[in-house]
Amino acid sequence: MDVIDFAHSYMTFFGRDKGNIARILLDAACTVTDERSGESETFYLIVPCRSERMYRDDGQLFQLPNYEFCGIFAEDECLLMRTHWVSERDDREYGRNDERFAEVKLDIRRRAARELADAAKIVEVTLANRSLVARTALRDDATGRSAVIEYPVKTMNVLRSGPRFQVDTGPILVPDFASTAPRAIERFDIAHVVYHRHDTAEFVLRRPQAVGVGTGAVAVTDYTAIQTFAARNTIFGVE
User: Fold this and answer.
1) How many CA atoms lie within 13 A of 23 on its CB side?
2) Backbone angles phi and psi of 49, in degrees to 5
3) Whose CA is closest to 191, among 167, 153, 146, 222?
4) Contact call for residues 78 and 97 (beta carbons, < 8 A)
5) Which of these, 231, 226, 219, lies nearest to 90 by C-alpha position?
6) Count of domains for the chain
7) Which structural domain range is residue 185 located in?
8) pLDDT at residue 59 above 90?
9) What is the CA radius of gyration of the chain?
């Protein structure tokens, strides 16, 4: 068995007219399958960064107001996401890779891994400080779509007595099976996941949330909505 080596897997975009080249690590992957047609596609979430001015020697590099930049990439298309101080300024920009950039490269490296079938083995491998990668499989009966989310386990909680484990990690991609967005790449939430069983997963989704009251109320984008799915969680110890 092999899994994505997230520590050495990158999306690199090349700006047009010999513009900026950005190499960015991957945070997660999600493969969505339409079980009726048999078609599947994999989408990759890049790690977030902050808005900046490029290569300037005459002043401040970070922009103010600042925003978070991240994105979802597939082989031929992308969805760039800018999250501002207030949600009304949030921006999702869809584009074809060959139109938005001079070139986009997805360098997905893989490493051998072994499934950790029970809690005792998960505790043992965690405390040995070996890398952990997990997969969470979901299915939606109404649409006939299924998804496999793959991600590094950045935070793992364990108890020697029991033994017990609890994954708490993110950000990852979670498909919104009910979404009516015109493109598949637009039908995702950014989320964190938590679970201590192999058959269920709880997600906290990043959504706009009203803060304050009356004329002073604003909407900010944060992790504010919880969804729980029947799931199949598999944890791997990287060799």
Assistant:
1) 6
2) -140, -175
3) 222
4) yes
5) 219
6) 2
7) 114-238
8) no
9) 19
The pair of three-digit structure tokens given for residue 182, joined into one six-digit string: 């015109």
Domain boundary, last residue among 107, 124, 158: 107
Q: Which two tokens stand for residue 58?
A: 């005459």
> Can you tell me whether residue 65 is helix, strand or coil?
coil
Rounded to whole angstroms, the Cα distance separating 17 from 19 reads 5
Is 216 a residue whose pLDDT tops 90?
no
With tokens 């990158």, the residue in question is: 10
pLDDT per residue as tens digits for the range 128-176: 999 999 999 999 999 999 999 999 999 999 999 999 999 999 999 999 9
Q: CA-CA distance, 4 to 210, in Å (whole number)?
A: 37
CB 169 within 8 A of CB 181: no
In the block, tokens 């090349």 appear at 14
